[in-house]
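User: Predict structure, ligand fructose -6-phosphate.
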Amino acid sequence: MCGIVGYIGGDPAAPFLLQGLEKLEYRGYDSAGVAVYDGTSLRVVKAKGRLQVLKDLIHDGKDVPGTVGIGHTRWATHGAPSDINSHPQVSDSGKFAVVHNGIIENYLALKQHLIRRGVSFVSETDTEVVAQLLEYYYKGDIMDAVIKVLQKVEGSYALGIICADKPDQLVAVRKDSPLIIGLGQEENFIASDVPAILSRTRDIYRLNDNEIAIIQREGVRIYDMDKELIPKEPVHVEWDVTAAEKGGYEHFMAKEIMEQPKAVRDTISPRIKDGRIVLDNITLTADQLKTFRKIFIVACGSAYHVGMVAKYVLEKMTRIPVEVDVASEFRYREPIIDEKVLVLVISQSGETADTLAAMREAKRLGARTLSIVNVVGSSIANESDDVIYTWAGPEIAVATTKAYSTQLAVVYLLAIYMADLSGCLTAEEYAAYLTELQALPDKIEKILQNRENIQYLASQHFNAKDVFFIGRNLDYAMSLEGSLKLKEISYIHSDAYAAGELKHGTISLVEDGTLVIALATHQNLFDKMMSNVKEVKARGAVVLGMTTENNTQIEQVTDHVFYIPQTCDVMLPSLTVIPLQLFAYYVASMKGCDIDKPRNLAKSVTVE
Ligand code: F6R
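Assistant: Predicted complex:
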């Protein structure tokens, strides 16, 4: 989710790089930097904080002369936000400078390999490994070095590379992370996203995975990994800047909903190596785990709803009792906490005041803390004993979607990891859970491809006055999330109930035409849910049902059905949530609501 810009041509590079980075600011970032060839060597300037800090440092680029360069805005994943961890990252001798979006999954092994061969590292980033490897393999031909590096690295990347030995070229390559090449007159560009270069050109090449682009002032050549030239047709971009910022979507929320397969894959796959879950930096041991009599989960809003799912999942898998608390309640209610308690803290921003205060209180009382956070270097991440990051990238829309989905993914990783540490899973169960987990991104993708069905349902109901969400077990937790999403962005009144609770009073609110969204994804509770659906239907409700593909008998009792793919029970929420987010989004957009709400760049919620 970082931003990449590169320039080669006749004009000063640095002012253009800064301008391009400015156009990518909406993506969120925590530091920025540029590298420019100044006639003799690569000049690299980087700074933590807003782009303005970097601009002031180099007087809007005037202090960094040269006509070829790369620039970057970083959203920290490996290593806290700092000057040294910012990009460009540079090789030992300063010959190579690299900007990178994505995650190099095997960077630690590669780093150790290079350290044993005498290479010294200065940053905590995975990107520095790429710069150092380039220098290590470089024997006079950059493309050969790039190909060798690509054969070594695993993960996702968009890379912009410059080399002091070849100042007449920029090199660009990508895998699973977007990168485009802009085509100008006697000047060419690279960028992670179209808005960065729209002021200079609308003609671009979209780079495919493992294509290597050699970009010079006079032209661009694209090669495959066998150094064969690939013919490519330029694409003419029609978008205006605002549409381009949102990747062609009308709202950031839509863009972020659609980014979920990638965000979940990015969060899961680097943590599964050779059929085992590897949680780097987690210091929790099997012996410590045995000492815990209880796990508390504290969070706010949607993150609290993830906590509700986590309670079911952790109890089922680890057999340790779990209590979930809204952080603003936990901190004021004198919870019974001691060193035999693990407190799991969930927060996208890592700065939510109530969640932070609840965590501090738990620590004061002696608990061990483990946080699930999206923002590296945030207060919750810094202060918890252990942290597992959700690699969702910056979330700009006010309503969380991809952070929620990646939090769920981390919950599954953690639950399987802990259950295995405490000996609660057989080898077969462990392998089966991993298979289901790894299949989630494709299943999410499949639901997203079917989004027109949800759009149609939204078009039938966007004028609803009241909406009830009902479900049992994990579907109850999902009902709460569906209801929150809907009211948050569409301003429609909605409530969520454990389906079995309806008859204890609330059913009196269901009358002719009331919209009820009934979640019935759990096979063992399906018949019970159908009885609940019949109860609300008898009072005249219009019922939209959601279930898994095999339960077609739901069609006899509901007005419309949305089917989701099958997965194991505990992982159903990762699929159930997608239609709920889409429904809320489409209803709000049909009502003309201000969905993204004016916000400041990267989302950071600090509510007291
Ligand atoms: C709902 C939403 C909020 C956040 C809550 C916690 O769509 O985004 O309910 O989930 O404010 O924020 P974080 O996760 O940053 O602690």
